[in-house]
C-alpha cells in the first residue's frame, strides 16, 4: 500500500495492520523452525549497530531468518558505549549469551551510496569518511568494554552500500572485502579471505559469519536483476522512539530514535524538523503525523509493567519536546504508546490519544 497520500488515520491503521502481519509471520511454525535450525547450525550471536534508515535490512540482505540478528538502531547511526542505557543493554545481552557458552559477533555499521552521495547517511551530512571514523571509535569502545583479545566478543566495522545492499567488511590489516565485487564462484574462497582479514577470529565465529556473506552475494545478484527506485525523496510521516521496530524495515517511512542517548531531546527535535519540512514541501499530507513509542519485554509481570512505564515516559517526553519546540506541528500529532512482546514480536498498544 502506498501510504504517503492517505489520510493520517488510514496510515495509522495500515501501520498497525502491518505490525500484526509481521508478528503472525514471525510466530508461524515455518519461521520458528527455521530460526531454531539456523541457531543450531550457527550458534554465534549476532548484534548489529546501525542507522535508523529502513534501507539497512541486514536479515533480508543476508538471507538470514528474522529474529536471528539483534538490531541496535539510532538516528544517524551514532552511538557511544558511555551512554548508560546503551552500555547496560549491550553488557546484559553479552552476559546472557556468554552464560550459554556462545560468542558474540558485533557488526558496527555505516552506510553509503555508490551512485549518489546524497543517498548516503544524512546523520553524517553524507560524509562517509566521517561515518567510518565514528564506527572505528565505537569498535575501540567495544574492545575497551569486552576485551581486545576478541575471544568472546568480536567487533567488525562493516559498510553497507544501499544501492545494491552490499556489505563491505573492514579487516584488521586495513584491507576490505567488498561483496559487490564477488560472484557465486567466490563462495568457496570466503573462508580464506576471512582468515586473511581477521587472523584472530575464532573459527566458530568465522564459520557463522560465512552464511551472511554467501547470502549477501546472492542477494546482490538478485538486486541487479530487478529495477530499483534509488532516488526516493524523504517522505517520513512518523517518529518512532524506543525499540522493537523491526517491522518498519522500509525506506523513507519512519524516523527511528533509539532510547540510548542521554540527550534524547536533540534527535527528537531533528526528527520533528524533518516531519515539518516534509509537510511544508507537500511530500506528505499536512493532516497529521504519528508519534509511536515502543519498549520490548521478555516476561509477563514485572518486566512488562516496567516496559509500560518506560514507553509512557518516552511518549510523554517526546510529545513535550515537540509541543515546546514545534507548537504548530504538535497540533497535528497523533500519539500511540505500545509495548512489544519480544517472544512473538507482537506490538501491543497500551494507550492512544
Automatic annotation (TrEMBL):
Alphabetical list of InterPro entries matching this protein: CsoSCA_cat
Span of domain Carboxysome Shell Carbonic Anhydrase catalytic: 98-172
One Pfam family cited in the UniProt record for this chain: CsoSCA_cat
Protein name: Carboxysome Shell Carbonic Anhydrase catalytic domain-containing protein
Organism field: Sulfuricella denitrificans (strain DSM 22764 / NBRC 105220 / skB26)
Amino acid at each position: 500500500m502506498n501510504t504517503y497520500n492517505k489520510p493520517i488515520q488510514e496510515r495509522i491503521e495500515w501501520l498497525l495492520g502491518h505490525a500484526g502481519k509481521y508478528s503472525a509471520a514471525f510466530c508461524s511454525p515455518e519461521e520458528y523452525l527455521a530460526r531454531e535450525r539456523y541457531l543450531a547450525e550457527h550458534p554465534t550471536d549476532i548484534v548489529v549497530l546501525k542507522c535508523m534508515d529502513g534501507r539497512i535490512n541486514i536479515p533480508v540482505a543476508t538471507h538470514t531468518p528474522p529474529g536471528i540478528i539483534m538490531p541496535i538502531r539510532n538516528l544517524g547511526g551514532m552511538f557511544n558505549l558511555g551512554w548508560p542505557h546503551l552500555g547496560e543493554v549491550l553488557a546484559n545481552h553479552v552476559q546472557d549469551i556468554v552464560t550459554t557458552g556462545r560468542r558474540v559477533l558485533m557488526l558496527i555499521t555505516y552506510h553509503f551510496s555508490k551512485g549518489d552521495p546524497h543517498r548516503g547517511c544524512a546523520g553524517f551530512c553524507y560524509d562517509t569518511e566521517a561515518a567510518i571514523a565514528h564506527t572505528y571509535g565505537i569498535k575501540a569502545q567495544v574492545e575497551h568494554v569486552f576485551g581486545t583479545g576478541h575471544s568472546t566478543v568480536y567487533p567488525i566495522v562493516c559498510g553497507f552500500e544501499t544501492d545494491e545492499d552490499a556489505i563491505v567488511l573492514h579487516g584488521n590489516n586495513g584491507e576490505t572485502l567488498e561483496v559487490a565485487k564477488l560472484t557465486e564462484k567466490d563462495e568457496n574462497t570466503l573462508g580464506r579471505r576471512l582468515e586473511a582479514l581477521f587472523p584472530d577470529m575464532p573459527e566458530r565465529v568465522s564459520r557463522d559469519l560465512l552464511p551472511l556473506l554467501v547470502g549477501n552475494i546472492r542477494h546482490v545478484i538478485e538486486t541487479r536483476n530487478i529495477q530499483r527506485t534509488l532516488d526516493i525523496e524523504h517522505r517520513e510521516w512518523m517518529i518512532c522512539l524506543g525499540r522493537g521496530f523491526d517491522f518498519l524495515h522500509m525506506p523513507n517511512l519512519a524516523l527511528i530514535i533509539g532510547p540510548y542517548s542521554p540527550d534524547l531531546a536533540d534527535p527528537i527535535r531533528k526528527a520533528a524538523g524533518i516531519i515539518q519540512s516534509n509537510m511544508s514541501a507537500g511530500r506528505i499530507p499536512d493532516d497529521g503525523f504519528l508519534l509511536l513509542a515502543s519498549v520490548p519485554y521478555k516476561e509477563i509481570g514485572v518486566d512488562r509493567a516496567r516496559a509500560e512505564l518506560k514507553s509512557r515516559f518516552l511518549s510523554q517526553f517526546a510529545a513535550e519536546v515537540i509541543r515546546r519546540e514545534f507548537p504548530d506541528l504538535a497540533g497535528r500529532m497523533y500519539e500511540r504508546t505500545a509495548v512489544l512482546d519480544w517472544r512473538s514480536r507482537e506490538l501491543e498498544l497500551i494507550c492512544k490519544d
